[in-house]
Amino acid sequence: MSKKQMQQSCLVLALFVFPIGGCGLFSSEAIHGNVALDGEPIIQGSIAFIPTGTTRGASAGCEIVDGAYRLAANAPPLEGQYKVEIRSARPTGRKIPEPPPAPRGTTMDEFQESVPAMYNANTILTVEITKATRQFDFLELKSKP
Q1: CA distance 11 to 145
Q2: What percentage of the chain has pLDDT greater than the value 90?
């Protein structure tokens, strides 16, 4: 996959995972960082930066892969305050009925959010994005308070 295709994939993911509009441009350096839960890198998940307070502009997000994320360099969020949502669904080991239109009796793996709501739906995570600050690591996330 080319760099351009990878950037487009991240943007497409953000548009479908997060209900957002376009992205603001102001720097050629991507927002990036590392993410860990209970000291272990989040292997697969998503991260979103959502404007808060007086910050204008659209939300931005991308995948977390092997404990790291990198927003497309051509579509970073604008400068300002953002709340951050981190998600990572993991299989529970159980099978559940697959929804229609799947044939009756078909099952699929059940997944459950592994990141506590205090880091996504009810996030306490915030960052201030500036021209000088482009890396944000979230390495102290805990599954239990």
Answers
A1: 33
A2: 67
